[in-house]
Amino acid sequence: MTNAAWETLGNQAVAAAGLAYFIALLVHLAEWAALRQPAAREAALVGETRGLENDALVEEVALQPSRDLGRRTASERVAFLGRLGFLVTCIAAAAHLVAMVGRGMAADPNRVPWGNMYEFTVSGTFVVTLMYLVLHRRFRLDWMAPIVVGFVLTILMVAVIWLHEPVQPLMESLNSYWLVIHVVSAVIATGAFTLGGIASIMYLVKMRAGEGSTTKGGWLRRVPGLDTLDKLAYRVHAFAFPVWTFAVLITGPIWAHEAWSRYWNWDPKEVWAFITWVVYACYLHARATAGWKGRNAAILALVGLATLWFNFIGINYFSSTSQHSYAIEGPELVQRTTVLE
């Protein structure tokens, strides 16, 4: 295949992935809607039986098989939609992966698909999906499906509409094996922090709605209890933090020294990456020493998530001085980097 054919394949795969994510989102929303039906039916049945007299107990027993059948049918519908949504998400992830491979193979010479902000965003959203799929069974993340799919779909739309650029060769400073080591670890940590942030968001949502009332009906009854959400957020953040430390404080400075002969340049992206590291270090330290749990820990985790995604997109897109700004055109970036050096 020619480079142009690979680039076309990458663009078509992104479109296919977006369509599959959209279908998966619709299926999971239908699953959430179906969750209300058993609860509503149960409430109606309870209301009816409260008015029964003692001499009507025979009728109550006669209705029991039909009730059990109704509950079983609704439960099977929810389970089917959940499996279908997960399958479509897997298909979307496969198309997502093809899009990344197509971008890398379209370059001359072939390279990893992390040469500009569009490619970073496509890769970052893929890792979010991949980590959800990997952890889905281990942590029973069925409830997180529409949130993850909706988030990935939204960021992909932003990337395609505002960040898309033609495939170009890597800049000289980016053409290093440290690009693979540094970016892979940073993107893995970003995906894990995002999943932990979603758990923290849902903790605050469920706490505000009231755990006791939300478990009786509606889509929030699918979300685990507050203690489970709190533990899930902590475990995911505890995994992501050392990976982020490796990316920000070890491989990043080494690569910077190799590319620009300086370990630390006070570049806006470097500063914000360190700010993110400090926030998450405070989060884990507060939980380990001060016993922070629940609401305070969730808020601090979301502060870290905000700094993370601002660093991931905001600095690259809005900064006029960062050597890491990949949202602009390639020639302008080369000229800017030459001046900064």
In short:
This protein is 79% helix and 0% strand.
Structure, described:
The chain is 79% helix and 0% strand. Helix 2 (57-106) packs antiparallel against helix 3, helix 3 crosses helix 5 (177-209) and helix 5 runs antiparallel to helix 7. It has 341 residues and is mainly alpha-helical. The protein has a domain at 171-341. It has helices spanning 3-50, 57-106, 117-139, 145-163, 177-209, 211-214, 226-260, 268-290, 295-318, 330-340. It is built from 10 helices and no strands. The longest helix has 50 residues, at 57-106.
Radius of gyration: 24 Å
Largest sheet: none
Task: Tell me roughly what share of residues is in helical segments.
Answer: over 70%
Shape: flat
Distance between the termini: 38 Å
Find the structural class using helix and strand composition.
mainly alpha
Beta-sheet strand percentage?
Answer: under 5%
Total helical elements: 10
Name the poorly predicted regions. Answer: 43-63, 326-341
Rounded mean pLDDT is 81
Report the order of strands and helices: HHHHHHHHHH
Total strands: 0
Domain Cytochrome c assembly protein: 114-319
Subcellular location: Membrane
Pfam family, one: Cytochrom_C_asm
Keywords: Cytochrome c-type biogenesis, Membrane, Transmembrane, Transmembrane helix
Describe the secondary structure blueprint for this structure:
Elements: H1 3-50, H2 57-106, H3 117-139, H4 145-163, H5 177-209, H6 211-214, H7 226-260, H8 268-290, H9 295-318, H10 330-340
Helix pairs in contact: 1-2, 1-4, 2-3, 3-4, 3-5, 5-7, 5-9, 7-8, 8-9
